[in-house]
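Aim 2, interim progress: modelling of the pyridoxal-5'-phosphate-bound target.
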Amino acid sequence: MSGRKWNFNPGPSVMPVPALEKAKEALLDYDGTGIGIMETSHRSKEFGELYGKLQERMAKLLALPADRKILFFGGGANLQFSMIPMNLLPEGGHADYVNTGTWANKAIAAAQLVGKVDVVASSKNDEGKFPRVPTPAEIQVTAGAQYLHLCSNNTIAGTQFHAWPDTPEVPLIVDMSSDIACRELDWSKFDLVYAGAQKNLGPAGVTVVIISQKLLDRCGDDLPMMLNYKTMAAKDSLGNTPPSFPIYMVGLVLEWIEQQGGIAAVEKVNRAKANLLYGLFDDNPDYFRAPVEKASRSLMNVVWRLPSEDLEKQLIAEATADGFVGLKGHRSVGGLRASIYNAMPSQGVEQLVDYLKKFAAK
Ligand SMILES: Cc1ncc(COP(=O)(O)O)c(C=O)c1O
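Predicted structure of the complex, ligand included:
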């Protein structure tokens, strides 16, 4: 498509073009109704159908256990940082958290406002950086913890969990904002997963929460309706007017994943894309420094450094001018980062790798 740049932004981020094309038409006329999708009532038959289909499609694509409820909230992943302890950390209880960087830390800070938090593992090194995630053996839950919380993909540090702690006695809660639907997973391990849509699922404005019946049954009754998983589940997330357009877009993105051959097919492409970049760094360690330990490398957010900050600045400026946008690392850590979510075509990564090779040679 002419004029579109390679968008490596961490979120909001690149979306599948076929989904955007379909949405373009639906803005004016959704499915021949003569009414645009944004103008369609959330109580209409049309919205009800697309909503039901989206939940069905998500459950099937992700291969969710039958008892999982799919909910939609506004407020981003940040709201979930607070809702989780509000619903699941009763007075006198305590919850376990793993610290793997910025977002995990925010979740910890939000939970500490509600109750007692034990940080049971951290991958912070002596320089204050997070170049890896803890191994399952390093994560020992405390007796009687209400739940264990971790962030599966650390968007800023460029790390990702590839092995999960085995904690049958303590429910596992995971922030999958930046890697949901990027790979096949055994979803029976997770009791609650949440993800802001704006990386792998659609536009900003909606957060998906996938929660087990077991956890829903544990939620208290003393919270306002909009903050209460149990009441929102009973209302199928339609306690108020939902973010109907972002929800519609999530449906289109899932449809696109299905057309690619499902999660397994998307995972294969994701692994190949990530290997291209990591391969370049491993083959040229004197020029490209990959700070993340190999076992913790993210498939979604690839971070690296150049020999100097001046060269990094030069690369970002030149690449931006040449149509590769969003390569600047997060301001808290510096360096470079390519966010290569599901919707980033292989071609984009291949062209980036060629560009980096030429830059290094120059
Ligand atoms: C892993 C992770 N968790 C949480 C957030 C915060 O998401 P939101 O802006 O939707 O609150 C982000 C945002 O980049 C993220 O990458």
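The chain has two domains: 18-260, 261-361. The chain has a mean pLDDT of 97.
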